[in-house]
Amino acid sequence: MDLFSDIQNQGEWLPIENGLLFWSPNFIQAPLATQMFHQLKSEIQFEQKAITIFGQPRLQPRLQSWHGSASYSYSGLTLTPKPWTNTLFKLKELCENTCDSEFNSVLVNLYRDAQDSMGWHADNEPELGKNPTIASISLGETRTFCLKHTKSKKQIKLDLPNGSLLIMTQSTQHFWQHCLPKSTTQKSERLNLTFRYVLDNG
After folding, report:
1. I want to staple 183 with a disulfide (CB 3.0 to 4.6 A). Which of 1, 114, 119, 176 is the partner?
2. What is the pLDDT along the chain (202 residues), one digit of tens a residue?
3. Residue 28 has what DSSP assignment?
4. Taking Cα atoms as reference points, which of 94, 95, 87 lies closest to residue 43?
């Protein structure tokens, strides 16, 4: 049977202040999501990269791998794409079908434990276009994802379980920042795949 034949893509679009989310906590059934987690761990070579913060290089508190057809730059770091794996490409197509958008790249982050994290930021680099659509698939351990409106300071928190899909679109990146904070409880490994379309500025 096709590995992806049992995908469950039920979810709902959630209008938020100055933005729009799609949320599907059970986008992929848990047993299949776990299988895909282990498959991606075996397919992908992860690295720990340094970014520039206040003029100083600091290692990011997570591992990552960039795949697709376009380079991507943020915080003084330029990522050169690796080829798509079969699993990544299939997941890309599933996300594209769900939100009727095209993606040409994916950032795969490996959070090793409760101390691995992602700080507050918006995916608003010029090469992502005016209103980028970002599709995020979570595999493995459940972690809490936070969004914060830059003006009203309203916050949204979502627990992202194994096999879930969260999509941020329309003007979300202009008005909201997001992060994945450290956890106060013990956590095992989690993979997060964020699919995006990077414009060719060459």
Report:
1. 114
2. 344 444 445 799 999 999 999 999 999 999 999 999 999 999 999 999 888 777 888 899 999 999 999 998 877 788 899 999 999 999 999 999 999 999 999 999 999 999 999 999 999 999 999 999 999 999 999 999 999 999 999 999 999 999 999 999 999 999 999 999 999 999 999 999 999 999 985 4
3. S
4. 87
